Amino acid sequence: MYKESFNQIINRENTNCYKYDWREKIFNKKDVMPMWVADMDFPTPDFILQGIQERMKHPILGYSFYGDSLLESVRNWMLKRHDWEIEKEWIKLTPGVVPAINLAVLTFTQPGDKIIVQPPVYFPFFSAVKDHKRELVENELLLKNGRYVMDFDHLENNIDEKVKMLILCSPHNPTGNVWHKEELEQLVDICVRNNILIFSDEIHSDIIFKGNKHIPTATISDKAADITLTAMAPSKTFNMAGMASSVLIGSDKKRMNQFMREMQKFHIGMGNVLGHAGMEAAYTHGKQWLDEMMEYLHENLDFLKSFIQKNIPLIDVIEPEATYLIWLDCRKLGLEDKPLKDFFVQKAGLGLSDGPLFGKGGSGFQRINIACSKNYLEQALNNLYQALKTDNFI
């Protein structure tokens, strides 16, 4: 039903598109193929656009609040997609996951407090800590047998009374990990024993490859629910990041009230009237589209792995369990980070996400976005192959 829409190559230029219209500013090269920022080149689903258009039939876009039907759509999605039964009262709308992280830092920590992140990880985590004069504690993930794991010994050894929060990326960006139940249980146990709040960024929780199952951190146990704030959004799943609409879910009423008071200081608690319509449509009608999109994404992933294994043996694909962001291990090329980035941009014409942006463990890596048409992906990989061949890497 939707496959032909995934095959389209849509011209996004001259639409104030961050991914395309800022290519020259970001990569110093206008004709680079941008495969970095985490939005898709697939069209936003028609049922979402229709939901927004239906709301726009009313001639006034004034102040509004989100009603029970939106909250019910979130509840139903979490139950059907993630086996997570939540109450409407646990849900608060936020203007994006990254703003929610920053607001949580302001609400639940003080300047000088320590916050743990687990690099290589989504880089706004670092600024959410440092910009508010909190101290960053890095618990670096370990790459073992092709999969990243948490270093629990290092984690425990770096906890003291100043550590107040851990920002978890689940599923993990950029490594593609879906954390196993045993891993989450051990993490929760450490945080419970040390009175550490978990902020669980689960924005990629719907984009899960076959054979894997996303487990919301808060569902691990009652104790996990007590110490976890969960951020989710339809933005990555349905390619609607420009709507700046997300949810924060927490069962601790006192803590959620604290968070809402902090939001109210900035007058951002009402949300986006068109974002409300888009989110409700996504969570009400999105199952079939998402299932078909994941099939297409799996085909792209298989193509990428097969192409690289056959033609570019000096690059290793870290097998993703989730997300459309694939972590490429380029260390066998023997290039330092700047020459590696320059090679991808200047020689191969590819604008990927540079590994060092993600902190410790990112050196020698590049992150590629495969949420695009197969033809576009094939062109990108051929460009890379020809560039490596021309420079005698292969």
Q: Would you tell me the overall average pLDDT?
A: 96
Number of strands: 15
Termini distance? 40 Å
Strand content: 5-15%
Number of domains: 2
Q: Which geometry do the CA atoms define? A: globular
Biggest sheet: strand arrangement = 2-10-9-8-7-3-4
CATH secondary-structure class of the largest domain: Alpha Beta
> How is the main sheet built?
7 strands, mixed
- The H-level CATH homologous superfamily of the largest domain, spelled out, is Type I PLP-dependent aspartate aminotransferase-like (Major domain)
- Helix/strand/pairing class, anyone? alpha/beta
CATH architecture of the largest domain: 3-Layer(aba) Sandwich
Report the helical percentage. 40-55%
Rg result: 21 Å
Task: Report the uncertain regions.
Answer: none
Number of separate helices: 16
Helix-strand blueprint:
Layout: H1 3-7, H2 18-21, H3 23-27, E1 33-34, H4 46-56, H5 68-82, E2 91-94, H6 97-108, E3 114-117, H7 124-130, E4 135-138, E5 142-144, E6 147-149, H8 152-157, E7 163-169, H9 181-193, E8 197-201, H10 222-227, E9 228-232, H11 235-238, E10 246-249, H12 253-265, H13 273-285, H14 287-311, E11 316-317, E12 325-329, H15 337-347, E13 350-351, E14 353-354, E15 365-369, H16 374-390
Parallel strand pairs: 1-13, 3-4, 3-7, 7-8, 8-9
Antiparallel strand pairs: 2-10, 5-6, 9-10, 11-12, 12-15, 14-15
